[in-house]
Structure formats: structure tokens, C-alpha cells
Write a structure and sequence with these properties.
The protein is of the alpha/beta class. It has four domains: about 5-140 and about 150-170, no CATH class; about 235-570, 3-Layer(aba) Sandwich (Rossmann fold); about 595-765 and about 815-860, Rossmann fold (3-Layer(aba) Sandwich), CATH 3.40.50.12470; about 870-1005, Rossmann fold, CATH 3.40.50. It is built from 36 helices and 26 strands. The strands form six sheets. Strands 3-9-10-8-7-4-6-5 form an eight-stranded mixed beta sheet, with helices on both faces. A seven-stranded mixed beta sheet has the order 15-12-16-17-19-18-24, sandwiched between helices. It is globular, with a radius of gyration of 35 Å. InterPro entries: 2-oxogl_dehyd_N, 2oxoglutarate_DH_E1, DH_E1, KGD_C_sf, ODO-1/KGD_C, THDP-binding, Transketolase-like_Pyr-bd. One of its GO terms (biological process) is tricarboxylic acid cycle. Keywords: Calcium, Glycolysis, Magnesium, Metal-binding, Mitochondrion, Oxidoreductase, Thiamine pyrophosphate, Transit peptide. It catalyses: N(6)-[(R)-lipoyl]-L-lysyl-[protein] + 2-oxoglutarate + H(+) = N(6)-[(R)-S(8)-succinyldihydrolipoyl]-L-lysyl-[protein] + CO2.
Length: about 1000
């Protein structure tokens, strides 16, 4: 934007030229064409001063010469000229209708009005830079101490606008883009400046002028500029004081009882509790029924106690040093746990459900998880506009600025399949990280600048002014209700103690903490204020404090009687009716995952057709659909068709299926095509799977943004909401999960152990050495297997169904299917199991089109199921005692081994056994295979390098099955990279390990 120069100089230099051009011919002035703002209001900062005055002279000649918005602007300016102050209407002045006014005087009138309008805009754009935001009075809340020169802080700077001290008492017409006048259209300049400073330079700083929507900007201006709009009633002030008492005294109580315990208290930002309650109150008033929250550990216990309303005795019980992990039911600490609670909102008398998500110390990792769970609840409630379910995310300032997942989450906020219709972000801005000064922690002026990428308004507020905080929270809730967009509240506060209560902050921030030690507590300051106003008496305040202290003492006494912590008090995502009341599955069996041939055929027919009429599809896609139809007639299924049948059959049973990830609609390898696009009509598309059955569940397939961390977290949260849904995330290539490793480590692998939270999310990770180089070859199976918790040295003993019992004991399931039928069955088993575990599937690339990698309907019909280990069914299995070698393998390498065996004519001498399920390790089936080939040597063959893949996982487990017969490794040598980038080297490695696998003579002396 071109800033408006001081108009006096501009007018003097250009007025003679413009007067010479008036009347020489009409020029149509269109603001949208000639100014850079792109809006239809007069925007002074967007246009040069000479252009504005040129427009004015053209308007005098003919009002139609300018855009209608400027026509109205100039008409208003004339109508409001002050006769009392000696001014004449502008047209009279500039057209010479009074001989007493000179051209210079007429220019001064235009100049002064435009200058005042520029001044107003300057406050709207940059007023937050001089707002009094820091409670400590040390910093300016941003990292830029420069005060914009166009903000008036002293009378001598009026000259920068071409104004003089005598102009302070002159009245000026207010533009349509401000509400500081209330019901008045004109104000003296002195009052204009006063009202602007009150609105934008007090304890609240508002960033919003970067938003490119006029309606939204005007809405915010009205909320902050209207005189007297920030007033609170006596009742509202008393409620605020009571909430502040609870927040403050809760922290004081914990400090007295457990002075040496880490609790990551809220001291220094106690106003967070009444702030959250205000947001919830206003949202409940607008119709919100469920609020899902995420936050770091600082202040979590206080939020649990005073916002979610977790029983205090349950919180205090967790401080018991004798409490064991088994009693706690958790592998994580109390300030990481969450809770789900339905209660009455006292301010609205409406039911509201509050859910605080459990979160590890990876501070912002919970952000997309909360968004996913919110989206799921909206989906299952039919809340298509976010009117009933919403999310609140709390952040620390250092993490909000520093963690990339914050940016990823913001960029999901308005994508059709990921939007939650507006999230309220509350930044607890301690103005410090762990021990790191903000100047070393971020490059942006504010920690909240990342929110500008999605045009979210940012409300900075001094946390030691509770009423300012409440007002900002009220407006944030109204913004979310009105516009369904994200909004950020920056609570500028401080951290009274160190990173934790045992930490010494003076080591690194001596000046800040000297000031903090002198800082009066916000509760005392606000109580004194209300007492002085006569809103409450000292006695009433002391009674409120005593009442809450008594509640805490009684809960503390009660906590001594707690024997076992109740699970219901810290589950953030309960699944009513899925488990028995004691939390155990309702059964420990899994029905057949096969389907009737009629169902398979029907799904196949839809998958090979276009349900919509007059729908033009790509010619190449027509060929693919014909190929699918041909497979149906032959009773066969490839990988894509088997997936179609698994998804479609679950939809028939009312199971929602959601597939998300980069390019999943078509599939990275152009095999899936679940969304058909009309080649003639833009944005016309068809999802055939949603046309399978009447009254079927909805199939959601959605291409995601180019994000793994954020999107996988989102889908994890979506899967938390409902056990009766198949939620799948597919990586574009398997190794892309690297950038989502935090979600995998902190939530998926350990989620049940830490928080007793089942989750059935499915990860589809394309994997396989295809000679394409180290990138995108390996999905890193060794990482998942390392985190599998089954004991390699103990053979499990079960009295019931071995497969189901073992799955129930594991932390997740890892499979590498070699057939479409296996893929079909494992997807269906994921839902038919009576519990939920994460499922990791290493999916193929070359097998998608390999003719040998197809399955007959016979492997998928009623009575069939997922086979954890596929035994050899060739000649070797007929005479197992003659078999010299058994090759165990998994996935794609089976087909290369089978091809090599056939060429060498070793079908009778070598058996090949496939592990479809790798973890939990199928001890029972492997034992049966080893005993079947009792005279054979055992080898494990993999295409991955020896230090990767599966060998380190399977070797000790094979020894547990058969200690006297070790299993030998055949595959690529150890390496640093997952694969070679040289095609010739790749083929040479493949030939070498295939030769080794079938070189019986070399095997006998172990020389390989």
C-alpha cells in the first residue's frame, strides 16, 4: 500500500496542475481500478494524495466522474463542513463561490479531512504496537520497540499529518470505516485521538486490518470502537471475581500441600480460567453443545478442576506418592491427562459436554488431534456448520511460534474435509520459553503472527486486566459464531515461577523475575478495584475465598479415602456401549470376515461403472473400469478392487469409512480412482462408493494438504470419536510418515498405555524396493516393530482364541499383505474385532498391477478370514520331510522368490512361507510350520537391508519357537540408506540374495 504523504506538500505541488486539467475532458475514476486496496470503500492509505485530490476536482466537474463510493464520501464531506468554525462547503471553497477564501485555504480543508482519516486508519492498523500489553511494564509484547511515526503520541507530531495544534479543537467528518463517533458524524480532533487511543492503545491491541474482507473488518471495528461498549454489569464483575478466586486459590492450595511437587501451575496467568469460562458461556448461549479442548501441561490441573469440573478429590488423589501406575491406570503424569464431562452450564442453563484431550509434552502435537475429534463429532451429529460442536486450543507463546504443526493445523482450518468452522486459540503468552528469551525464540514480532496466514484476527490483551480479557473472549466467541473462522487471543502475562515449581528462573531472566517478585497478584488488584467501586465488600470477598478454600480442604480429606483412581475421571474419549462397564470387551472372538459372493459381485459392478448419467470420464479411466468388470466376470480381485470391496461392505453395515491423505482420491499410483471427475464440466465429480446401497453409511475420501504431522494427527483425533468407523490415513509414500513421527510415537504406539485410550486408526504406507532410489522405497518397518510390545522371549499361553487374545494384548498391529484377499480381510477384521488397535499396513507398489498378485473370490467369500501366516501350498507341502529349506518372508519379495524357485525347479525342495501379520508375532502358526518341516533349515529372506526391515524383530521370536534350529538371514547387507539409487546396483543386489536363498550347497556349510 502507498502511504498517504502529508497532504499539504502534495496539494501544493499538484494543485496547479490539477486545476489546469479540470474541464479538459471527463475521466472516470474507479477506486477498484486505480487503488491497490481492492475494496469498494474509500481507502485513503491505498491511494496517493495527488490522486485523491485529482478525483475531488473531477467530482466537482461531474459527480459521475468518480466511483459511487467516492461520490458519497465527497458529498458527506461537504455536508458536514463546520460553519461555526468559519469553514465553507468544500465545493464553494474550491469553485471560488466566495471571494473571501483563497485556493490555499480550500486546499487546507481537503488536506485536513484526509489527514484525519489517515490518522484514524493508522490507529486501526498499528495501534496495537503502542498498546499497554505487558503486565510487568518491561516489554511491548512484540519484539519491535519502534513506535510507528504515524501514531500520535504528542502534539508536535501533528505536523507529520499537515495538522496544527489549533486543529485539535476543530470538528472533522468521520469516515464510514470507523465507529468512534457512536451516533455522531463529526468529532473534534482532540476527542478523535482520545477515542482511538482508548480503543486501540489501552490494555487491548487488535490486529485485523490485514483481513481482506470488508464486512469482517467493519464488524471488529464496531466491537472495539463503539464508545462505552466494553462495560460490564455488577453481576458480571462479581462472577468474574468468583472465578478468579477459584483459579488463584486452587494454585495456592496445591502449593501449600505439595510444595515440592511439579504441577506446572498457572500462577501469572490465573485469568485463563475465567477467560475459558467466558468463551464457553458465550458459545453455549449461541447453541454450542460440545467443546473439545487441547492444551499444554501448564495450567492443565486448574483447567481440569475449574473449567471441566473434574472432582477435586480425584486430582488430589493423584498426588499420592504411594499411587502405583496400575492404580492410576496410566503410563503418564497427572498434568498430561484429559477428561470428558457433561454438565449444566450455570450461565445458560444448557447441557454442555467438555472434553480436554490428553497430550504429551510435545506441546502442540495435540492441535490437529483436537481438530480431528471436533470434526468427527460434528460429522456424527450432522453439524455441517459447526453450530453445535467447537474446539478451543490453548498454546504457549514459544511453542505457538516455534512448532511447525501449528502452521499445518491452521492450514487445515478452511479445507472442506478438515474445517471445524472456526477454532478459538488462546495463547498463554508468558513472554518466555523454558529459559529462552523471546528474542532468541522467534523471528516474528509477535508469537501469534502465524495466524495471519489464514486471516484470523488476533486480539492481544494484558492479562492483568481481567475485564479487558473477558471482553476479548466474549468478542472471540461471537466472531467464531458469526463467521465460522479461527480467532486468536494473545494473553500477555508472565510466569511467576520457573518452568516448573522447582526451577530457578533468576539464572537466565534476572531482571524479569525481580519485577515479577514485586508484582501484585491479579486477584488482589481486581478485588481492590471492585471494592473501591462498591461492587463487592471486603467481607464478601473474604467469604468467597474462604468458601473455596473449604471446598479444597474437604476434597483433600476425601482423597485420602480413595483406593483406586476411577478411569472415568480421565478418559477424554469414552465410547458408550462399546465396552462392558468394567472396560473389558464384550467378547473375545472375531467372526468370519468373508462376504457372500452376491455382495462381492454387486460392489464390483458399482466399482466398474459410473452411477451418474451423462457423466464424461477420461478415456484411460474407461479402460480401467472395463478391466475391473472383466475381473468380476472371472471372479478375481486386484488390490484396488479388494479395497473397494472391504470399504463397500462396511458401508453396507452402517460403518463410516474415511480415507484421507495426499492424492488418495486417485491413489498415488493411479490405481484407486474413488472419485470420478467429469471431463466436460468443471467441479462435477462422482463418488461411486456412495451409490452402493440404500441407507448405507457415508464414504468420505479426501485429498489432504501436503502435510503429514497435521493430517495424521487430525485423522487420529477423528478415529477417537467413534469406534464404529474405519479411519484410514495413507502416506503418499511410506517414508512420508517420518514427518509425522511425533504422532506415531506419542499417540498411536503408546496412546493406550499412557491414557487407556483405544484407537482403531489405519496407516497405509506404500513400501517396497523397486530400484527407484532411497527416497520412497522403505516405510521403515523396523521402527514400528521396535515399538511393538510383545515379548520376544516368551511364548504366549492363551486358553481362548489365540489370535484375538494376542491382538488384545498388543499395542498395535503390523501387517505386510502379499495378496489382495489378505488386505480385504485385515481391513474388515479391524472393525469386526471387539476392541480397537491401531493397524499399520505396508502396502505394495508393483503388486498393484502384478497379474500374479490377484485373489479369487474363493479367498474372500463367507467363511474365509484373514490368514496371519500363508503356508506353502505347492509340492513341498505334500512331502514336508523331504524339504531341505523353508524360506520365511513377508510382502512383495514372495513373488520374486516364487519366480526364482520355479525357474530353478526347486518346488519340492524349498518351501516358502509368508508372514502376513508380523506383529503381534504369530507364534502359534510359526510353530506349526517349523514343526511341519522338522528336517529343514530355516532362513529369513527380506529385500530390505539387514539392519532394517524385519530381521531383528523376527529372529529372537523364531528362537523362542524353536531354540535348537536358528533362522538364518538372507537379504541385502547393512547400509545407511534404505536403498541404492543405482538401478544396476539394485538388480545386482536382488540377484545376489536370490542366488543365496536357493544355493543349497552353500547353505550346508553356512558360507553364505
Amino acid at each position: 500500500m502507498n502511504q498517504l504523504r502529508p497532504l499539504a506538500g502534495a496539494l501544493r505541488s499538484s494543485s496547479q496542475w490539477m486545476r489546469g486539467h479540470v474541464g479538459t475532458g471527463k475521466r472516470v475514476f474507479d477506486l477498484r481500478r486505480n487503488c491497490s486496496s481492492g475494496v469498494t470503500e474509500p481507502s485513503l492509505a491505498a491511494c496517493s494524495s495527488s490522486y485523491v485530490v485529482e478525483m475531488y476536482y473531477a467530482w466537482l466537474e461531474d459527480h459521475k466522474n468518480v466511483h459511487e463510493s467516492w461520490d458519497a464520501y465527497f458529498r458527506n464531506a461537504e455536508a458536514s463542513s463546520s460553519v461555526e468554525s468559519g469553514e465553507k462547503p468544500l465545493s464553494m471553497l474550491l469553485q471560488g463561490r466566495t471571494m473571501s477564501q483563497t485556493p490555499a485555504m480550500s486546499e487546507k480543508v481537503v488536506e485536513d479531512h484526509l489527514a484525519v482519516h489517515t490518522l484514524i486508519r493508522a490507529y486501526q492498523v498499528r495501534g496495537h504496537h503502542v498498546a499497554r500489553l505487558d503486565p510487568l511494564g518491561i516489554l511491548t509484547a512484540d519484539l519491535d520497540s519502534f513506535v510507528p511515526s504515524d501514531l500520535i503520541t504528542s502534539i508536535d507530531k501533528l505536523a507529520s499529518y499537515g495538522l496544527e495544534e489549533s486543529d485539535l479543537d476543530k470538528s472533522f467528518q468521520l469516515p464510514l470505516t470507523t465507529f468512534i463517533g457512536g451516533n455522531e458524524n463529526t468529532l473534534p480532533l482532540r476527542e478523535i485521538i482520545h477515542r482511538l487511543e482508548t480503543s486501540y492503545c489501552g490494555h487491548t491491541g487488535v490486529e485485523f486490518m490485514f483481513i481482506n474482507n470488508m464486512e469482517q473488518c467493519q464488524w471488529i471495528r464496531q466491537k472495539f470502537e463503539t464508545p462505552g461498549i466494553m462495560k460490564f454489569s455488577a453481576r458480571e464483575k462479581r462472577t468474574l471475581l468468583a472465578r478468579l478466586v477459584r483459579s488463584t486459590r486452587f494454585e495456592d492450595f496445591l502449593a501449600r500441600k505439595w510444595s515440592s511437587e511439579k504441577r506446572f501451575g498457572l500462577e501469572g496467568c490465573e485469568v485463563l480460567i475465567p477467560a475459558l469460562k467466558m468463551i464457553i458461556d458465550k458459545s453455549s448461549e449461541a447453541g454450542i453443545e460440545s467443546v473439545i479442548m487441547g492444551m499444554p501441561h501448564r495450567g492443565r490441573l486448574n483447567v481440569l478442576a475449574n473449567v471441566v469440573r473434574k472432582d477435586l478429590d480425584q486430582i488430589f488423589c493423584q498426588f499420592d506418592p504411594k499411587l502405583e501406575a496400575a492404580d492410576e491406570g496410566s503410563g503418564d503424569v497427572k498434568y498430561h491427562l484429559g477428561m470428558y464431562h457433561e454438565r449444566i452450564n450455570r450461565e445458560t442453563d444448557k447441557n454442555i459436554t467438555l472434553s480436554l484431550m490428553a497430550n504429551p509434552s510435545h506441546l502442540e502435537a495435540v492441535d490437529p488431534v483436537v481438530q480431528g475429534k471436533t470434526k468427527a463429532e460434528q460429522f456424527y451429529r450432522g453439524d455441517t456448520e459447526g453450530r453445535r460442536v467447537m474446539s478451543i486450543l490453548m498454546h504457549g507463546d514459544a511453542a505457538f511460534a516455534g512448532q511447525g504443526v501449528v502452521y499445518e493445523t491452521f492450514h487445515l482450518s478452511e479445507l472442506p474435509s478438515y474445517t471445524t468452522y472456526g477454532t478459538i486459540h488462546v495463547v498463554v503468552n508468558n513472554q518466555i520459553g523454558f529459559t529462552t528469551d523471546p528474542r532468541m525464540a522467534r523471528s516474528s514480532p509477535y508469537p501469534t503472527d502465524v495466524a495471519r496466514v489464514v486471516n484470523a484476527p488476533i486480539f492481544h490483551v494484558n492479562a492483568d486486566d481481567p475485564e479487558a480479557v473477558m471482553y476479548v473472549c466474549k468478542i472471540a466467541a461471537e466472531w467464531r459464531t458469526t463467521f465460522n473462522k479461527d480467532v486468536v487471543i494473545d494473553l500477555v502475562c508472565y510466569r511467576r515461577f520457573g518452568h516448573n515449581e522447582m526451577d530457578e528462573p533468576m539464572f537466565t531472566q534476572p531482571l524479569m523475575y525481580k519485577q515479577i517478585r514485586k508484582q501484585e497478584h491479579v486477584l488482589k488488584k481486581y478485588a481492590d478495584k471492585l471494592i473501591s467501586e462498591g461492587v463487592v465488600t471486603l467481607q464478601e470477598f473474604e467469604e468467597e475465598v474462604a468458601k473455596y478454600d473449604k471446598i479444597c480442604e474437604e476434597a483433600y480429606t476425601s482423597s485420602k479415602d480413595e483406593k483406586i483412581l476411577h478411569i472415568r475421571h480421565w478418559l477424554d474419549s469414552p465410547w458408550p456401549d462399546f465396552f462392558k462397564p468394567d472396560g473389558e470387551p464384550k467378547s473375545m472372538s472375531c467372526p468370519s470376515t468373508g462376504l457372500s459372493e452376491e455382495v462381492l459381485k454387486h460392489i464390483g459392478e458399482v466399482a466398474s461403472s459410473v452411477p451418474l448419467k451423462d457423466f464424461a470420464i477420461h478415456s484411460g479411466l474407461s479402460r480401467i473400469l472395463r478391466g475391473r468388470a472383466d475381473m468380476i466376470t472371472k471372479r478375481m480381485a486386484d488390490w484396488a478392487l479388494a479395497e473397494y470391496m472391504a470399504f463397500g461392505s462396511l458401508l453396507k453395515d452402517g460403518i463410516h469409512v474415511r480415507l484421507s491423505g495426499q492424492d488418495v482420491e486417485r491413489g498415488t499410483f493411479s490405481h484407486r480412482h474413488h472419485v470420478l471427475h467429469d471431463q466436460e464440466v468443471d467441479k462435477r465429480f462422482c463418488v461411486p462408493m456412495n451409490h452402493l446401497w440404500q441407507n448405507q453409511a457415508l464414504y468420505t475420501v479426501c485429498n489432504s494438504s501436503l502435510s503429514e504431522y497435521g493430517v495424521l494427527g487430525f485423522e487420529l483425533g477423528f478415529a477417537m470419536a467413534n469406534p464404529n468407523a474405519l479411519v484410514c490415513w495413507e502416506a503418499q509414500f511410506g517414508d512420508f510418515h517420518n514427518t509425522a513421527q511425533c504422532i506415531i510415537d506419542q499417540f498411536i504406539s503408546a496412546g493406550q498405555a499412557k491414557w487407556v485410550r483405544h484407537n482403531g486408526i489405519v496407516l497405509l504406507l506404500p513400501h517396497g524396493m523397486e530400484g527407484m532410489g532411497p527416497e520412497h522405497s522403505s516405510a521403515r518397518p523396523e521402527r514400528f516393530l521396535q515399538m511393538s510390545k510383545d515379548d520376544p522371549d516368551r511364548y504366549p499361553e492363551y486358553t481362548g482364541d489365540f489370535e484375538v487374545q494376542q491382538l488384545y494384548d498388543c499395542n498395535w498391529i503390523v501387517v505386510n499383505c502379499s495378496t489382495p484377499a489378505s488386505y480385504f480381510h485385515v481391513l474388515r477384521r479391524q472393525i469386526l474385532l471387539p476392541f480397537r488397535k491401531p493397524l499399520i499396513i505396508f502396502t505394495p507398489k508393483s503388486l498393484l498391477r502384478l497379474p500374479e498378485a490377484r485373489s479369487s473370490f474363493d479367498e474372500m467369500v463367507t467363511g474365509t478370514k484373514f490368514i496371519r501366516v500363508i503356508p506353502d501350498d505347492g509340492p513341498a507341502s505334500k512331502n514336508p520331510e523331504k524339504v531341505k529349506r523353508v524360506i520365511f518372508c513377508t510382502g512383495k519379495v514372495y513373488y520374486e522368490l516364487a519366480k526364482e524357485r520355479k525357474q530353478l525347479k526347486l518346488e519340492e525342495n524349498v518351501a516358502i512361507v509368508r508372514l502376513e501379520q508380523i506383529s503381534p508375532f504369530p507364534f502359534d502358526l510359526i510353530k506349526a510350520e517349523v514343526e511341519k518341516y522338522s528336517n529343514a533349515e530355516l532362513i529369513w529372506c527380506q529385500e530390505e537391508h539387514k539392519n532394517m526391515g524385519y530381521y531383528d524383530y523376527i529372529r529372537p521370536r523364531f528362537l523362542t519357537v524353536q531354540p535348537k534350529n536358528p533362522i538364518w538371514y538372507v537379504g541385502r547387507d547393512p547400509a545407511a540408506a534404505p536403498a541404492t539409487g543405482n538401478k544396476f546396483t539394485h538388480l545386482a543386489e536382488l540377484k545376489r540374495f536370490l542366488d543365496t536363498a536357493f544355493n543349497l550347497e552353500a547353505f550346508q556349510d553356512k558360507s553364505f
